Amino acid sequence: MKRRFFRKILPLTLINLNNMITITALIRAKNNSADLEKLNGLFVQLIQETRKEPGCLKYELHQVTQQPGFFIMMEEWASEAAMEEHNTSPHFKNFLISAEPYFTVPIEEFESTLLT
Known about the structure:
116 residues; alpha+beta; Alpha-Beta Plaits; 4-stranded antiparallel β-sheet; 3 helices; 31% helix; globular; Dimeric_a/b-barrel; oxidoreductase activity; ABM_dom; AI-2_Isomerase_LsrG
């Protein structure tokens, strides 16, 4: 299966796994085709720009099967600083402003730690 969005991951020798940050975001959007089409375009722009960031290790968007408008964003960052740089980047701020009208509830974010 060919991946549509593929980016080269930084060599593990450059990443301190103790500093790596994993974020899972739950995004609930209006469930109509016109709004989802517009939101999808915004997601594509955000993902393309974010994957260019040097501290971005993974930035994947999933849509929950059988639940249109329910998305899960899975992120991995090389460090807290890399994540903060992303959160203050113009493309991320612009996404939040542009996409907000399509959300039905605020985005839920969870930071997690790899156990095994």
